[in-house]
Each structure stands twice: as structure tokens, then as C-alpha cells.
Amino acid sequence: MNNIKYWAHCFDTQQKENPEDSVKALNFSNHKLMNQVHEEILSCIDFSIIQKSDRLLDTGCGTGELLCKMISKGEEPQKYQYFATDISRQMVKKARENLNQKLTGGSRFCDFSLMSVDNMGFKNGCFSLILASESLQYTDPYLAILDLISMTKKSGQIIISIPNHNSSHIQKAIQKHNGMFTGLDFEKAMGLIAPRVSSFMAKPLIFADNQEKNPYFSRELEYSLSKGDILQANRFVIHLTV
Q1: 54 near 129, Cβ under 8 Å?
Q2: What is d(CA 19, CA 91) in angstroms, rounded to the nearest whole number?
Q3: Exposed, middle or buried, 6 (CB in 10 Å: 0-12/13-18/19+)?
Q4: What is the phi/psi pair of residue 175, to 5°?
């Protein structure tokens, strides 16, 4: 079983066992962490450069929490064409339910597909905005990002949140899951990804621990990273302009 199929099985099982708790279903142990990640991603979106009827994609949509927030933020829902994908059948089902609950008839505004983040098959240049929140660590993130770049039209945006591969906290998670999980090495990403885009900006998310028992914090940082920031970061939020 490869990484993505392994995690599809895990998430299907977790969603069945925790149908009313999206945080546990997504393997997050802290609501504040998930909300902070979403806030950072949403703050990056520049809707002013997205045209009417443009296509917007949430890949690895999970239970649809970020998708609902994105649609609510983006003016009237019918203005854009929304797409959402996930490899977990249970996640897609829950995302559709969440959209209908939070936005009357919401699922009619979005085209849901059962699809792996490492094999989506969309045409080149078909999206103006792609979000990939906490989904690329379940496959080869560098190849996945290159695929996202090819699917994004010129001047389109890609916004990613992903664990820092070199964080001691993430290394523990990698060991826990026997290597069926990874993160992003920032310097490697700069070398492979930055030359393919017109703009590469990153913000580190730094927090004490993602367990409820410990104090939670994040630092407000601009899109510039020192070596110390990179070492401390648990996650990166990365904004690419194609």
C-alpha cells in the first residue's frame, strides 16, 4: 500500500469513528491549530485578481472546513466555479454535507471529485486559485506542487500549508507513521519550485505544541524567513504566483 492509499484508509476510518468531530477525523488534536492554519491561508487569497467564472480548487479538501470558509469569503457563491477533491470517500461525503449545512444548497456551487492529490488529471492552466491545506505531506510534495503549478493559469495563485520536514515535532510524526508521512524541506522547495513560478513567498507557523494540554501560540511574521524561523517552524504557509 502506498502512502496516499494508506492515508485514504486512515481518514475513511477516522471519519466513520468521529463523524461529528472534524478535527479528530483529520488527525488534528487542536482546534486552534486548524483554525490558525485556515486563517493564514485565507488571508493570502487575493480575490481582486480572480475573474468571474474562474475556477477555484481545494485539493485534499478533507471535511470541507476550509472550502466552506473560502466560499463564504469569496463574495456571492455563484461568481466562481468551485472544485474540491479528496482521495477519501468519507471526507468527500462529509465536505458535501458541511457545505450544505453552512450555505443553503451549498454543494450545488461546488464540483466534488474522489481524486488523489498526486494524480488529479486536470488540464493545464485551468485554475485561477488552488488551495492545498495539509494534504501534500501524504505524497511526494515536490512533484505534487509541480503538478499544481501546471494546472494553474498565468498569474494564478497557489496557497499551501504543509509541515516543516525538519521540525523535531514532525520528525516524531514521521517515525510514528513509519515514514508514510512527510513534510517540506524549505531549501529543497526553493531550489525545485521557486524557479518555476513568478513569486514564491513563505510564512512559518510557529507554535509550542499541537496538544490541548500545552499553551498554543503563533508568531505574526511577514513573508521572509531567517534560518532561525525555518528551524523553529512546525508548518509553512506558502503563496505561489504562477
Answers
A1: yes
A2: 10
A3: middle
A4: -65, -40
Q: What mean pLDDT comes out for the span 41-65?
A: 93
Model's pTM, two decimal places? 0.86
Q: For 190-203, what is each residue's pLDDT tens digit?
A: 899 999 999 998 88
Phi, psi of 57 (to 5 degrees): -125, 135
